[in-house]
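From the methods appendix. Each design record in this collection lists the tokenized structure first, followed by the designed amino acid sequence. Records were kept in a plain field format so they could be parsed without special tools. The example shown here is representative of the layout used throughout.

RECORD:
FOLD TOKENS (296 positions):
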């Protein structure tokens, strides 16, 4: 027996018609037919359907289906997980997402279980919200998304946006990477107040001066002092660097010191010593000291 079945999915009005003994028997539109619900005429019984006609469009990582088709059968074959391309600042959160890739070339939303495989993430909750931990430099984390017996992984960069907040080295005035590079993670020898190489300068002083904290012969200081004229002095400071500001201060009495800034200068651009000239010397006895500003 031949016939024609007409259907429309979207408003879910399902119309079927078949010629029966020379006349057409039609299942009247009865509204939405959920899956498994019957539409019936005197001659036909048809299971209803649910869903909508696929248009194949997308505006992001959402479902894609075959355009113009009422439905499709597919088998998930993989999981794709996504993270923000610019990464997430340390101690902040971001949203991860995942989709399944299907054997017919489409992909669909899927519920997944999230697992931190490696790196500085505190957690990833069931909704895919990832919470970053603290880092001493930009670091990669690896997260797995699992569903339907399939697993996909995604890398998430945790950005070092707080330069002095890591472990034992937090809030001590020294950039965390400097301490980790020289002393490793959470080593008490790397604390700001420790003089690890016994050269008279603690780690904070070594960091500010740019000297090596594990080399006792690498010490910042005044290399020479000479009088230019009866009222001017010249000092040579070393080592000195272009990313620091050096100031010379003076006083006339060390027992009741009242240090006054006499002159300031940026560091040298090429050589590693700084000649500071034209320093006022207005008294018969003057004491001098150098200070360093480092906007790291």
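DESIGN:
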């Amino acid at each position: 027996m031949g016939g024609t079945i007409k259907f429309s999915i979207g408003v879910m009005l399902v119309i079927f018609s078949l010629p029966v003994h020379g006349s057409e028997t039609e299942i009247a539109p009865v509204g939405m037919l959920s899956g498994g619900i019957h539409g019936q005429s005197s001659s036909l019984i048809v299971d209803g359907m649910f869903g909508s006609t696929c248009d194949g469009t997308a505006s992001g990582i959402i479902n894609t289906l075959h355009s113009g088709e009422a439905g499709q059968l597919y088998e998930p074959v993989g999981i794709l997980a996504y993270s923000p391309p610019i990464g997430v600042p340390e101690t902040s959160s971001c949203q991860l997402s995942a989709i399944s890739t299907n054997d017919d070339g489409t992909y669909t939303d899927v519920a997944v279980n999230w697992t931190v495989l490696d790196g500085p993430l505190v957690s990833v909750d069931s909704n895919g919200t990832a919470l970053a931990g603290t880092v001493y430099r930009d670091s990669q984390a690896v997260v797995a998304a699992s569903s339907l017996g399939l697993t996909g992984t995604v890398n998430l960069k945790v950005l070092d946006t707080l330069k002095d907040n890591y472990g034992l080295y937090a809030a001590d005035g020294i950039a965390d990477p400097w301490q980790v590079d020289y002393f490793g993670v959470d080593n008490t020898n790397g604390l700001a107040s420790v003089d690890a190489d016994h050269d008279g300068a603690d780690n904070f002083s070594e960091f500010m001066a740019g000297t090596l904290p594990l080399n006792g012969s690498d010490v910042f200081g005044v290399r020479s002092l000479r009088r230019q004229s009866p009222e001017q002095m010249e000092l040579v400071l070393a080592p000195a660097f272009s990313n620091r500001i050096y100031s010379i201060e003076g006083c006339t009495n060390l027992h009741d010191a009242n240090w006054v800034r006499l002159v300031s200068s940026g560091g040298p651009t090429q050589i590693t010593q700084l000649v500071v000239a034209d320093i006022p010397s207005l008294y018969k006895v003057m004491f001098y000291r150098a200070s360093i500003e480092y906007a790291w």
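APPENDIX NOTE: The longest strand covers residues 150-159.
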